Amino acid sequence: MKLGIIGSGMIVHDLLSFIEIIDEIELTAILGRKESKKKIEALVNKYHIKKSYYDYDELLKDEEIDTIYIALPNHLHYEYTKKALLCNKHVICEKAFTSNVKELDELIELSKKQNCLLFEAITNQYLPAYKEIKERLNEIGKISIISCNYSQYSSRYDAFKRGEILPVFDINQSGGALMDLNVYNIHFTIGLFGKPDRVQYLANIEKGIDTSGIVCLEYPTFKAICIGAKDCGAPITSTIQGDLGCIKIEGPTSTLSDVQIIKNNGERKIIDSSKYHRMYEEFKEMAGYIDNKNYDICHKMLEHSRIVMDVLTKARESANIIFGCEKDIK
Cis (ω within 30 of 0) for the bond into 96? Predict the structure, then answer.
């Protein structure tokens, strides 16, 4: 996979910190703004990136690049992904995939028409611990309650209260606690249990954006709550509770670094965490799928992402949160 990276934010720095150990990925180019040229050239030199671009259309013309990784603010995901697909590039797009399910449906249809592979970069779906949780769910018996809490006081929240609106709190950039943090909890739950029967979002809203909130997912035989907060903090813990025991996760559902199965009889089993960076498995697997043109896996993962985006869309609708890019949609 010959990769072109779009963006230079924190998530890109995370990827660059380990990408050299993934043999399947050839780091070909990076795109940045002209105003960030010094920053981009520093990344090029530090991580031995072949080329740098400051015009997206020029990068997309580069025939050496076969895959685009989009790591931009949420509201740009749809536009940049669509352009890449139209240029016959495979795409890996950061979470949240798009601003709403309508946008994602269009991209999925386009990717199939163009015969391109399209993936959402979502860490937990690829982690070994997550796959083991799936395999061992039956050990805790009949499930009654799932509770996922990812609450982390944002370093940008004080600025937001002063009136400085940064992307993560910007209604016009598809920000908010649901799309930034709670999206991991939604992916975690839906990846294990599929599409819920009912979705409701109880959100705390300031300046039109959700700074925290609780998503309630109703399944036929159990209930799940997913909490995401950027205006307050708490121990980050998740549990899946059954009549024979529970699965307890200390830390965010994006990393799954501390997972235990705790039985009613007191027995405890530790699920091993990955020894690599939290993003390693997703990029290694996606690179293999793209190199081998594995459309079956791609379409399976798109089905999962589509359910998640449908839930995110319904959750925001229930809380009457309308992104700037949606105001003209009737």
Answer: yes
